[in-house]
Amino acid sequence: MSASLCETMSEPLSEATHWGNGPNDDRIKNAVVVLTRLPDYKISALRPPTPPQFYSEDESLSSSDSDMQVEPEDDSDSDYSVSNHKLSTVRREAPRAQAASTSGNNTGPEMMPAPSFDPESKVCPNLPEEEVNVGMVVLARRRAMTWQRGKILEIVTKEDGRLKYKVGFEEKGKSLVSGHHIASDRTPTLEQLYIGAPVVVQVQTLNPLFQPGILAELPSRKNHLRFLVFLDDHTPAYVSLPLIHLVCRPLEDVLESLPDDNHRCFMKRYLRDWPFPHSTQYKVGQTVHVELNGVQTSCEVQEVDCSLILVKFETSHLEQWIYRGSVRLQQHRGRILDSRE
pTM to 2 decimals? Predict the structure, then answer.
């Protein structure tokens, strides 16, 4: 769509109206249409919604370093653990015109002017907070890696001044959660999104399931106008705007809530290096080694999609999407220690 827009205009706006002298020295106005190129992020907002990337509950997309079942908690300040819930995705095909314009140039996301979280100073962009009221429909943390839709029944002030939110879930049950464990049920605007923003993503269309993550790429031509999100279990996913929900009250350090140390170190390094995060080029058919259940396992690259590669494990024939700079890849494993310094 952006390729069809006029790149330039023939005359400055101040000279868009021309005057001419006729035989009787009458002045005649000649109308000139002025076309202005829109930024990619505004164009993407006008496009039809991207088909959802998540569909099935039955198949597996990715595994974390160590999986641990977590029981529901009454208070969201409990310790974080990684869920053993697995995802399945069906990746949409990139539009042919866009794919052709970016072929052979997968060196990283196209940078767009956007604020980002600073992992060193732990400062988030100064954006207005989402208003939270009793009766508001929200997405709330039920357990690690599982958020559900519910309604705020009560706002409770603790003795130390902290605010808690009592949420009644649609699928029965209630929880008292913190502000960083609730997200708006509304689709955010592009102006509210930034690199490093804590978000919740819908990962199933049937029996809606939501999982937390961090925004890693904004839409551009290089990623076919999609958002890249790293879920908290290190699973990467390209998603469309309607699947994204903003956390209402983010922590001062958004990385503090990440349940896995390795993923936390990876995200710290990723945000610190933005807009030039570390990644490696891969080709279809190439053999790579990827961590699976704590063991480096030989895989073959099946597809390359912008910042992601689809790998197939030789022994189990399992297919998974992996970020090209993931700590699960053997050549990037050593970066974990650098991020802990």
Answer: 0.67
